[in-house]
Amino acid sequence: MSAMITVEEALARVLASADAPLEQERVVLEAAYGRVLAHDIKALRTQPPFANSAMDGYAVRAADTAQAPLTLTVIGESAAGHAFRSALGPGEALRIFTGAPMPEGADAIVIQEDVRREGDRISLAAAALAGDNLRQAGMDFRAGEALIAAGRRLTPRDVALAAAANHTHVPVRRRARVAILATGDELVPPGGTLGPAQIIASNNYAVAGLVEATGAIAIDLGIAVDELGALRDAVGRARGDRADVLVTLGGASVGDYDLVQQALVAEGMELGFWRIAMRPGKPLMHGRIGAMRVLGLPGNPTSSAVCAVLFLRPLIRALHGEPDPGADPSQPARLAVDLPANGPRQDYMRASLGRGPDGILVATPAAVQDSSLVKTMARADGLIVRPVRAEPAKAGDACRIIPFHGLGV
User: Fold this and answer.
1) Which of 130, 280, 327, 402 could form a disulfide with 107 if both were Cys (CB 3.0 to 4.6 A apart)?
2) How many structural domains are present in the chain?
3) Same domain, 300 and 341
4) Using the 8-state DSSP alphabet, how is residue 393 labeled?
5) Cβ neighbours of 378 (radius 10 Å)
6) Pair 33, 168 in one domain
7) Residue 255: pLDDT band by 50, 70, 90 thresholds?
8) How far from each other are the two terminal CA atoms of the chain, in whole angstroms?
9) Contact at 8 Å (CB) between 291 and 22?
């Protein structure tokens, strides 16, 4: 029997199987949300392309106002999309609105609240300074400037910036295709008829949700029974669907009915590892079938979800070319209760999270940590990470937690 490897070593091997980011493709802006940028985006234009007013008011020559109080003559107006075509001369002012181009000769805006107008004359009580309430050309960005770095998952704000820079398409990484196969004679899909020894399959929904939340495409291969031919057929379907990753759920151990590893090896899998010093999730399997990466997640619902967070999500991020895909997702917190010493496996305890009086997160572990409990996992806010052979801990002690928020679980 192979020895267990550490979580850190397992993650390094999983990420190494990504080899290089997936190929790039160009998509229209409307399809760019959540996609990972393949190359830097540079501005195709200068923004704003001309000096313009930041406020509603009057464009003036600052030097004309030095002897305020005084009056100036209004010679016209400038509105957004409708520039005033003449230059501003001595003693003149121009009615101007937010976003409107500055007329030639003007170098300041006096806001309308600071002006009294009678006909075509305005009175100013105080002098204006050059640059007041004025947006200079290129204040936002200039043509050729790098705006968004490669490897970033594009937010709505990023897409808006690309649009402002006059891009209609952006180069992104192809979305990873992740085939998900639930296995086991005991599994029935929701709504199906349960036999006396059967349960409803649910792991595939949690994993598919995480896959989509990470920006990849989830491909449902359904449920395969515990029969070598059925399992091999499902692997063939994953290949036919051009899966970049095949995720199997359950059956990766070495029991009499755990046939998944046998089927994968029969289909040409090069086994990387299959036992990790962690709880839950020890029987996680990793390998390759040609270009297709394989992750065999444990069958217990909590085990599969935790392993998906720790290994599948980083693998997808690596395939998409995101920077530092294996970055530690944990953060500091405090324990709400005492905890006993930990054993030889790194422990991930389901926990609720709240804020203490000082604003620091406080973690309360669920009373029962059995990895088969779907409700416990659904009600948890995150995981308390207990290192291998950690000493007993007291309420109030520092700990590390992995919040679920933002991870797609």
Assistant:
1) 130
2) 4
3) no
4) B
5) 13
6) yes
7) low
8) 32
9) no
* 165 in the same domain as 77: no
Q: What is the rounded distance in angstroms from the CA atom of residue 77 to the CA atom of residue 57?
A: 10
Which residues are CB-contacts of 378 (< 8 A; sequence separation ≥ 6)?
none
Instruction: Give the domain range for residue 80.
Output: 52-135
Same domain membership, residue 193 and residue 311: yes
Give pTM, 2 decimals. 0.91
Q: The domain that contains 154 carries what CATH number?
A: 3.90.105.10
Q: Is residue 409 part of a domain?
A: no
Shared domain for 100 and 225, answered yes or no, is no
Say which DSSP state 312 is in. Answer: I
280 cis-preceded (ω within 30 degrees of 0): yes
CATH number where 62 lies: 2.170.190.11
CA 310-235-10 angle, 5° bins: 25
| Per-residue pLDDT tens digits for 287-305 | 999 999 999 999 999 999 9
**Pair of tokens at residue 396:** 């109030």
Contact 319, 313 (CB under 8 A): no
Q: What is the mean pLDDT of residues 75-93?
A: 96
- A 10 A CB-CB count for 159 gives 20
In a domain, 84, yes or no: yes
| Residue 354 reports pLDDT greater than 60 | yes
In terms of Cβ atoms closer than 10 Å to its own Cβ (0-12, 13-18, 19+), residue 126 is exposed
2 has a pLDDT exceeding 70 = no
* Other Cβ atoms within 10 Å of 356 Cβ, number: 12
Using 50, 70 and 90 to split pLDDT, how confident is the model at 155?
Answer: very high
Task: Find the DSSP H helices in 83-202.
Answer: 156-164
Both tokens of residue 139? 């204040």
Q: Which helix (H) or strand (E) holds 279?
A: strand 278-279
> Domain check: are 227 and 312 in the same one?
yes
Phi, psi of 316, rounded to the nearest 5 degrees = -65, -45
